[in-house]
């Protein structure tokens, strides 16, 4: 047996290991480079004509939810956001919605129908969504009191997710250790498939979703 015959299989072991690891990964989960880092700041116009900057909320736990009126999963999660807003109304928590590839009129109609009192912001050109690495909705970012991203949820949030992450953010004092030092991560809701609007439209992303409406 030649030395090449011995070394070639050995050199392939690391590659095979990486391939095996890749097969165990959920392809719908992309690790966010924002975890443990400062959340990208933004100054956007609210649906009622005001403006809001993320930097204005420093010292509070912030839940930033990217959503659209055409998104069925957004409608699924919305009651939990409304419930959590009421539950944590007396705490230092601020919910913020950012409209993703949707019109102001659709977004305004949606919020009036679905409820909730948190500010919802328009995102022209999806610049903020791009800065956060969003490419489908819903996606939700949990930002600690220091302005750092502690957790990203791909797909709809529910009561368990909100009641797990909001208290974790609140236990971290402003200008102290970040929540992401202990609890970093990305989660994906079971059964969730990413949705984006069809090209040239402001509506459901796929024929399947149109059929389900």
CATH topology term: Glutaredoxin
Number of domains: 1
**CATH homology-level superfamily:** Glutaredoxin
Number of helices: 6
The side-by-side strand order for the widest beta sheet comes to 5-4-3-6-7-8
Strand content: 15-25%
Give the overall average pLDDT: 79
- Poorly predicted tracts of residues: 2-8, 10-29, 204-213
Mind describing the biggest β-sheet? 6 strands, mixed
The CATH architecture can be given as: 3-Layer(aba) Sandwich
Helix content: 25-40%
The Rg value, from CA coordinates, equals 20 Å
Strand element count: 8
Dominant shape? globular
**Top-tier CATH class:** Alpha Beta
Distance N to C terminus: 65 Å
Q: Which sequence of SSEs, written as H and E, runs from N to C? A: HEEEHEHEHEEHEH
Describe the model.
A 6-stranded mixed β-sheet has the order 5-4-3-6-7-8. It is globular, with a radius of gyration of 20 Å. Mean pLDDT is 79; it is low at 2-8, 10-29 and 204-213. The protein contains 6 helices and 8 strands; from the N terminus they run αβββαβαβαββαβα. The N and C termini lie far apart (65 Å). The chain has helices at residues 3-24, 72-87, 104-114, 127-131, 159-170, 207-212, and strands at 43-45, 51-53, 61-67, 93-99, 120-121, 139-143, 149-154, 186-188. The protein has a single domain (32-212), classed as 3-Layer(aba) Sandwich (Glutaredoxin). The chain has 213 residues and is an alpha/beta fold.
């Amino acid at each position: 047996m030649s030395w090449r015959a011995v070394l070639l299989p050995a050199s392939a072991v690391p590659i095979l290991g990486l391939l095996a690891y890749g097969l165990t990964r959920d392809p719908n989960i992309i690790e966010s480079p924002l975890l443990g880092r400062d959340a990208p700041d933004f100054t956007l116009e609210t649906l009622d004509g005001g403006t809001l900057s993320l930097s204005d909320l420093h010292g509070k736990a912030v839940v930033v939810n990217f959503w659209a009126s055409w998104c069925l999963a957004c409608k699924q999660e919305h009651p939990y956001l409304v419930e959590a807003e009421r539950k944590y109304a007396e705490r230092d928590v601020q919910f913020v919605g950012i409209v993703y590839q949707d019109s102001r009129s659709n977004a305004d109609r949606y919020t009036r129908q679905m409820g909730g009192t948190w500010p919802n912001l328009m995102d022209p050109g999806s610049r903020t969504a791009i800065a956060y690495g969003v490419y489908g909705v819903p996606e939700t970012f949990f930002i600690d009191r220091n302005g750092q991203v502690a957790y990203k949820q791909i797909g709809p949030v529910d009561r368990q997710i909100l009641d797990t992450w909001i208290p974790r953010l609140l236990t971290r004092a402003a200008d102290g250790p970040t929540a992401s030092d202990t609890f970093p991560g990305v989660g994906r809701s079971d059964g969730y498939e990413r949705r984006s609007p069809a090209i040239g439209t402001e509506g459901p992303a796929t024929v399947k979703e149109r059929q389900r409406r």
